[in-house]
Specification:
Layout: H1 10-13, E1 17-22, H2 45-57, E2 61-63, E3 73-74, H3 82-93, E4 98-103, H4 111-123, E5 128-133, E6 136-145, H5 148-157, H6 163-168, E7 172-176, H7 189-200, E8 208-216, E9 220-229, E10 234-238, H8 245-253, E11 260-265, E12 268-269, H9 275-284, E13 285-288, H10 300-308, H11 316-329, H12 345-358, E14 363-367, H13 375-392, E15 395-399, H14 403-409, E16 412-417, E17 420-426, H15 427-430, H16 436-446
Parallel strand pairs: 1-2, 1-4, 2-3, 5-7, 10-15, 10-16, 13-14, 14-15
Antiparallel strand pairs: 4-6, 5-6, 8-9, 8-11, 11-12, 16-17
Helix pairs in contact: 2-4, 3-5, 10-11, 10-12, 11-12, 12-13, 13-14
Bound molecules: adenosine-5'-triphosphate and magnesium ion (MG).
Adenosine-5'-triphosphate (ATP) binds next to helix 8.
């Protein structure tokens, strides 16, 4: 049943239903309050779960330290008894017969799931309807009859605090849920990454995708930016200075996290990836920095060799051959023993490109490869990029002010203006755009 088709039975059920979200305790493993962890779209666990509870139960109250959050609730009247104390608190205060009680570490629960628990409760003669999956039962995603307050209190008095023992002493019906990750528990940062990943992993067919990305530093920089890059394609990102082009590349490398929205790279959702996973992505996607970032104390050849050092699939002779091959590829064979300080900016860029290629990436990102370079060298770099695209089928993203370069290499273009992608489409369509910002930008180049 799709979410929009859920008929909110609470409207008919009157005060028969109520919803409670347990927000007790900090998680030592997450190092912070679980309720405030982010899920998709920048919402927190708390916001997502409470809105899903509200939809199905018609109300939501927090149990625990509710004053920290801006929602109504109750303090745990049996503190120190774990979640069972919270369950008792909810059932003690509730005016409703059926009470949905959910823990705040299951960020993928849905109103649809809750609806099925209430429906089973209202149809049968049970004390408790708990969600279950794969033989596991989840007592903290369950609907309880308010008469269970008594049993909760007596379990607490007996110091029998395990939730599983509690529900197995009740007349409990297990509602089996087919779809994961609806019940995924989040206890560690890795759980969060895996759960967000399994929820989203297959959700893009593009090599790179920005999906409704927002980024705010002190000011909003990116506002609802969406675009994608398919394998083997070259995307140009253009726009005035300071509009967020380099920030966009930073998101693709995972150096910068979006405030909202999703970023996919190498078909994977990298938005919430941990550093260790991002490092794997950065082996596939390399960046040629605006500055070139060469080591001044190493020769051109040594600079390239440096990025091969960690590869154990090459012996020393192989490595020399690869360095020579790459230098040839960028037309710099004769500069192998020179130092970067001997080279012009344009040649340094070419060395930086060769060094990026040494990692044998699937995708290469260029930040302003032709700025501060004379026209002949610009042309040379453009030709080199075109050659790499055609010979190596490298996927690329190029940030540039240089419209000649854009016309030479781009398949598709993103035009950023005031943080928004006001154009995204094939190069050929850019000139047809009637947007005055775009017309002005293109005209500037003609004078
Ligand atoms: N780490 C940061 N913290 C705060 N603000 C930042 C940060 N990085 C970038 N910005 C701001 O974001 C805006 C966009 O910067 P960005 O470097 O992406 O622009 P750009 O389009 O690449 O410009 P240029 O064409 O001059 O290279 C700028 O206002 C910049 O000051
Ligand atoms: Mg920049």
């Amino acid at each position: 049943m799709p979410a929009e088709d859920i008929r909110y039975h609470h409207l008919m059920a009157g005060a028969n239903r109520a919803g409670y979200l347990l927000v007790g305790g900090q998680s030592s493993r997450m190092g912070r309050d679980k309720a405030l962890l982010p899920i998709e779209g920048g919402q927190t666990f708390l916001e997502h779960i409470s809105s899903e509870i509200q939809k199905s139960a018609g109300s939501v109250k927090l149990i625990g330290d509710y004053k920290k959050y801006s929602l109504p609730g109750y303090r745990d009247v049996m503190p120190g008894n774990g979640p069972l104390g919270g369950v008792f608190t909810a059932l003690h205060y509730t005016p409703a017969k059926w009470n949905l009680i959910v823990a705040c570490d299951m960020p993928f629960v849905t109103a649809e799931l809750f609806e099925s628990l209430f429906a089973a409760a209202e149809a049968g003669d049970f004390d408790c309807i708990a969600a279950g999956h794969d033989g596991q039962i989840e007592p903290l995603c369950a609907v309880y009859h308010n008469r269970c307050a008594e049993a909760a209190l007596s379990a607490i008095e007996r110091k029998s605090l395990k939730m599983h023992d509690f529900v197995s002493g009740l007349k409990t019906f297990v509602q089996h849920i087919e779809k994961l990750p609806a019940l995924a528990n989040i206890n560690t940062p890795a759980d969060l990454a895996a759960a967000n990943g399994s929820a989203k992993r297959s959700d893009t067919s593009h090599y790179i995708e920005f999906r409704n990305v927002y980024k705010t530093f002190d000011q909003p920089v990116l506002v609802d930016v969406s675009f994608h890059v398919d394998p083997g394609e070259t995307l140009a990102i253009i726009g005035r200075s300071g509009v967020g082009k380099s920030v966009t590349l930073g998101h693709i490398m995972g150096f910068i996290k979006p405030t909202r929205g999703r970023v996919f790279v190498s078909y994977l959702d990298i938005t919430d990836m941990e550093e260790a996973e991002l490092r794997k992505i950065r082996k596939k996607v390399t960046m040629v920095f605006q500055s070139g970032a060469l080591f001044d104390s190493l020769t051109v050849g040594e600079n390239i060799l440096f990025s091969l050092e960690l590869r154990d699939d090459y012996n020393e002779q192989n490595k020399e051959d690869v360095v020579d091959g790459l230098l040839q590829m960028v037309d710099l064979a004769e500069y192998k023993d020179h130092y970067p300080s001997d080279l012009s900016t344009g040649y340094k860029r070419a060395v930086a490109i060769a060094r990026a290629l040494a990692a044998q990436p699937e995708c290469i990102l260029y930040d302003e490869p032709t700025t501060m370079v004379d026209p002949i060298m610009s042309d040379h770099i453009g030709n080199l990029m075109l050659r790499l695209k055609n010979q190596l089928r490298l996927t690329s993203v190029v940030v540039t002010h240089d419209l000649d370069l854009m016309y030479k290499v781009a398949d598709r273009v993103v035009f950023l203006s005031e943080g928004r992608s006001i154009f995204f489409g094939p190069l050929a369509d850019l000139e047809k755009s009637t947007d005055p910002n775009i017309q002005e930008f293109l005209a500037m180049d003609r004078v």
